[in-house]
Structure formats: structure tokens, C-alpha cells
Amino acid sequence: MRDAWRHFRAAVGEFYFELPRMIAVSLIWFIPTVPALWVAFRVVTFIGGDPGAEGDALIPVVAFGTQATFFGFLSLVAAGPALAGLHSAIAPLARGDLFEMSMFWRGARTHFRRAWILATVDVFIGVVLILNIWFYWTSEIPGIWLLAILFAYALFAWGCIQPYLFPLLIELDQKVTLVLRNAVFVAMDNLGLTLGMFAINAVMISIAAPLGAILVPFALPAILANMHLRAVVTVIERYRETGRILPRDGESVGEGHRPKVPQDEAPVRHERNEDDARGLGGRPRRLNR
């Protein structure tokens, strides 16, 4: 958990030193995310204001659910790539490089399709888990409420992997299924870091909720994205040092620079096979020469 706190402190410090551009990139992320936030707000207010639906009252409930589903998935067309752009812009800071605003647009364009799919799958899983908790908890069948507790644990696990999803998409540049699998593996393999970031995320979001007009558009996205990226970059470098994943072409194991090759020796290219492309969690493999 100390690692999570260390990453959070570093993210807050970099937000302060890069204040104008951090606020700008947070606002750029916030604008295309507004439709998705509005749909989520309408769903919460509709459910909270609905005392129950019986008979003819089911018609507006079904109509609202259909509309919310359609507009919700449609809004993710902008929200998903915007989230990928936010992480792409802040990723250089997590690696110790300079902050570049142009990386927002490049990242959103490069990862547009996968970011949309990842955001859609992620939101769909969360909604299904919440609906199952609500259904089994309010059911009048004796003892079935125990299933709600099981789905609550699943929802907690789903919340724990959130900090890893988009950072892994940006850092490893993999397809959505591998991102999801690797996020689960990293969360389980680094349990202290995972729980620490979950606690920090929960505290920051609970603080930002009553101050949403100030923190959400201007500060929260950049700070949390930087913290998550720092954690993922640190984990990936540690895995590369132990050979659990191969370094990028032209990089030495555990370092982010091109190795010096003597003049009389041909450069060695680290080739990847299909197993290595599957990402994290494998046994240490030798580099193919």
C-alpha cells in the first residue's frame, strides 16, 4: 500500500508543477465524457425516484431502459477514446519524460476502436453486476439475498482492476481481451498495490462527489491517471527485469533506452513469438537470437 501512496504523492506533485497543462488535458477529457456522465446521472435519478413499477408502469421503465442503453453505448464512442487520449498524454510523465499535449489526440486516434470496445465491455460488466446485486437483494425469495453478497464481492474485484485497464492498453498496446486478462493478473499479483490504489480512488471520488464542478473537470482525471500509469509502468519494468515479459525491440531488459552495441558486433534483435505477445504472467523466457 505504501507504493500506491508514493505514486499518488508523485502524481499530485507533478500536477502542481504542470498545473496549466494538467488542467487543460483534464478539461479536454471532460468535454467528450459529459454525455456518458449525463446518462449515468439520469439512470441514477430515475432509479432513485421510481418507487416501483407494476402493470402499465412497466412501459416507461422499459422505454427508459432501452433509451439509456442506446445512448449510454453511443456516448462511450467519445468517452473511451478520450480516456485513452488522457492516459497517452500523461504516460510520458510516468516514464520520466516530458509532458506533451499533442499525445492526447494521437493516443485517442491510435487507440480509438480498442478504447471504445474496452470502455463498453468495462461499463457493461459493471452494470450487470450492479443490477444483479439490486435484483437479488430486493428479491422476496428467502435466502436468495446471499447471492447479492457474492455479486458485491465480484463488483469489488471489478473496481480493483480499473486502475490497470487503460494504462495497460497504452503501455503494452494489446487487444482488449489481453488487456482484461493482464489487468486481472496484475491486480492479483500486486495485491497490496491494488488495495492501496482502490482505497485512494475511493477517497478521491468521495471527496470529488460534492465538489464535482471543481475537481472532476480540472484535477481528478489527471491525478488519478498519472497515479495509475506510474503503478503500471513500475510493475511492467519489474516484470521485464525478471524476464516475465520481453522488452520492446531495441531496449535492454529492465531499461528504457537503446543498448550500446560495439562496432564489430551486429545488433541483437529480440524477437517475439505468439506466447510472448500474450503479455504478463508467463514463465521467464530466454530471448531469441
Residue windows where pLDDT falls under 50 for at least 5 positions: 50-59, 252-273, 282-289
Question: Structural class of the secondary elements?
Answer: mainly alpha
Global geometry? globular
Q: What is Rg? A: 21 Å
Tell me the fraction of residues in β-strands, as a range. under 5%
Helix content: over 70%
Mean pLDDT: 79
Order of helices and strands: HHHHHHHHHH
Task: Please provide a written account of the structure.
- 72% of the residues lie in helices and 0% in strands.
- With 289 residues, the chain is an all-alpha fold.
- The chain has one domain (2-247).
- The chain is globular, with a radius of gyration of 21 Å.
- The two termini are 39 Å apart.
- The model is unreliable at 50-59, 252-273 and 282-289 (pLDDT under 50).
SSE layout:
Layout: H1 2-17, H2 19-49, H3 58-94, H4 102-110, H5 112-138, H6 145-172, H7 176-189, H8 191-208, H9 212-218, H10 220-241
Helix pairs in contact: 1-8, 1-10, 2-3, 3-4, 3-5, 3-6, 3-10, 5-6, 6-7, 6-8, 6-10, 8-10
List keywords for this structure.
single chain; 289 residues; mainly alpha; 10 helices; 72% helix; 0% strand
In short:
This protein has 289 residues and is mainly α.
